[in-house]
Amino acid sequence: MNMKIFVDFDNTIFDTRHQFLDDFFGVFDKYGVSREIFDSTLSYFSKTSLQTGECYSPESHIREINKVTKQNIDERQFLQEMEIFLEDLEKYVFEDFYEFANNFDKKNLIILSYGDSDFQSQKISGSGVKQFFEDAIITQGDKTKEIEKYMQKYCGRDSACVPVIIDDKFGYFESAKNSQLNIKTIHNVRGGELCDDSKNCDKHVKTLREIKKSLS
Ligand SMILES: [Mg+2]
Question: CATH for 2-15+89-210, among 3.40.640.10, 3.40.50.1000, 3.40.190.10, 3.30.1360.30?
Answer without folding.
Answer: 3.40.50.1000
